[in-house]
Structures are given as C-alpha cells and as structure tokens.
Amino acid sequence: MGSLVVLYLVMATMTNWSALIRLQVDRLNETVPQGSFEDYVAFYTAGDFILHGRGNELYDLEAIAERQHEIMDRGVGGTGRLGFFNPPFVAVMFAPLALLPIDVAAVVLFLVNMALILVAGATLQRLLGVTGILASFAYWAGLLSLFSLYWMLGHGQLSMFILLGFLGFFVHERQGRHRLAGISLALLLIKPQMALLAVIVLLYKRRWTELATFSVVAAALVVVSTAVTSPAMLIDYPKFALNAGEWERTFAWQVQRMYGLNGLLAAVLDKHSLAHFVATTAATVGVAILVTRAFRGNWDPSSRGFPLAVSALVAATVLINPHVWMQDMVLFGVIVALALVDRKGREHTFPIWMTMAILVWTSQWISFRVEQSYGLNLQTPLLLAAFFVLVWEVGSLRRSVNRPAVTNDVITSTRVAA
User: Fold this and answer.
1) CA pair distance 346, 192, nearest whole angstrom
2) What pLDDT score does 418 carry?
C-alpha cells in the first residue's frame, strides 16, 4: 500500500513539473497567452521602474498598465494589467532581473524559487527526521506535488520567502540564535501584514533581542524604500495597500475568494456591510488572543510545545490576513510539518496530523473546481481546524507538564493510610 502511495505521488510530481518546465519553454518562445501565470510581470515592471528612476510611480495604476503593455506588447492578467502590491524595497530586489528580457527573467525567477524550495524542503526533512529511501521519496513527492507549490512557481510569486521567514525563525530560536531569528522574521516584510502577529507575540513575550534585530532590518528596508521613491511613500503605500475596494474594481480581486477569515465571512455576509466588518474584526481579535495564549509560560524553544505554538502562529497569520491566495497555501506545509516535530509523548495526535496532511494535499488540487461549482472555500475551514487543534494541543501539553506527578511512594502511602 505504501509503495502504491509513493508511486502515485511520484506520478503527480512528474505531471506537475513537466507542466512547469513546458511553461518555461513557452515563455522563452513567447507563446504564453494572456492571463496564464503572469504575476511575475508585476514584479518585473516594478523592477523596471526602479531601473529607470520611476520609483514614485510604483502604485500609479495607469503608468503600470502602460509600461506592462510596452513590455509584453499586449495586456496582462485577467483585466489587462497587474498591480504591484508589495513595498518598494521588493521592487529594488527585482531591478537586476529587469536588466534581462522578461521571458528570461521569468525563468530565472523560477529557478530561484526552485532553490528556495529545496532549502526549505531539506530543512523540514531534517526537522521531521525523515530517513530511508521509501520515506524520503514519499516526503519529496508529496511536497513537490502540492498544488500551491505548482501555482506559486507558475506565477513567479514570493511566498517561499514568507515560508522561509517562519521556518528560519523556528530553527534559529531552537539553536539559541535569537538575532538570526529576528532577521528571519524580517523576510515576512515582503508582505508587511504577515509580520504583524509575529511582532505582537514577541512584544507579549518581551523578546527584545529578536525585536531589536527585526526592527533594524525593517528600518533599513524603509530607508531603501524611501530612497527609491520619496518620503511620501510612507503614507502612499499603506493607503494603496488598504484600499481593497479599488483592487476589487481594478483587478477583479474577489474578497470572498481569498483564503482567510475575511474571505470566509464575505462568502456568507455582505462583504461591504457593517456586519461583515464587525464579524471579521471579532474573529481576528479572537484568533490573535488564542495564539498569544499558545505562547503562555516560559519562552522555551526546546520544549515540545514550542513547534506547536509557532505552527499556530503561522496558521493564525494566514487566517487574519485579507489577501492570501493559493500561492500562500504553501505555508500549510510548515503548519503540518511543525505539528509533527517532537512527536514523543504526542503519538495519539499523529493520525490527526497525517490526516490533515492528506486533506491539505487533496483539497488544494480540487479547491478551484469546488469553488467554481459550489462556491465552497475549502482552505480556510481546514486552516481553522488546524489552528484549533494546535491551540488545544499546546494547552494539553502545558496541563500535563503542570500536573503533579503521582509517584509509587505516594500510591503506597495512600494504600497504607487506607
């Protein structure tokens, strides 16, 4: 049975990667149609603006659309243009790629993402203690055939930086390298909203070393961002990022299809209503409170509960963010993997997390079809289920540690007294 599962996963991996390689060949041959995996065009255009001293136009939608049409000789994306939603320093990262022809740049970005996947995959394999040929084949085949990974690679998205930010934070904390842990978290600033909950947890736990290094990197990135744009960008970028209504009208960005609490509640409530705002705010605050409770007690990265708490932090970060899509579901890999670290004494929950891994893998492949046919969002309920199990597990571990041990001497004394 195990061999058949591995064979199936290997076949799925081969199917995925043959399609991705064919996509890169089509890009080099300039035969990719409009709307097919084109998010990389937004990053390339932003880098091009930096190269030509047009950083102050990064969030000018008309200027962006005009330049994208010049680069591609056609419209891009579903609406003919793709906005740049990241901070200006991300555009600086893409300036070197903008020196290349866009099709070559897309392939280079694909190769960079592949390298990041290999780094993350090897790190997770080591943490999980996966050894042996069959187990290793199953692990890598399952990882590389994740639909969210395929989606991220196809679009040239940046979700691997966020994954490595959380993973680096956990690994460095375990090794006692707290400054490197703070620097790792700075990778989340590629999407600044992703760092918010982690910062709250560090403040709650008074982790000043991690906060200090994170803040230094964040300040340096602000300096870079203002240098290539203008100080006004400190106001203009947050204003642009918060203007979700404009995104919906301009880029066909549908709130109810996003994977988070905001999207889930928008599917059942009027997305522009007071009820939706109140419900989303209350749910977000509730999740934030629960995740801080997961970090109660002493900060002990070597404890069995620490991987679960960090996993809950990742799940909560995705849940409270309003703009997460399939590429960001690669984070589910870290959520499940960290839940399986340090399994000693938690063997009873192993079937739960293996079932969750299977559900995540399967649901990602059928998500779009189910959403289009039935309007059901599969990812957010799974995230919520994983989050609540993690919070419950952390609480159970804490109670078991705090519960007084009953020794043989106590039992004997009780019998004698009786």
Assistant:
1) 34
2) 39
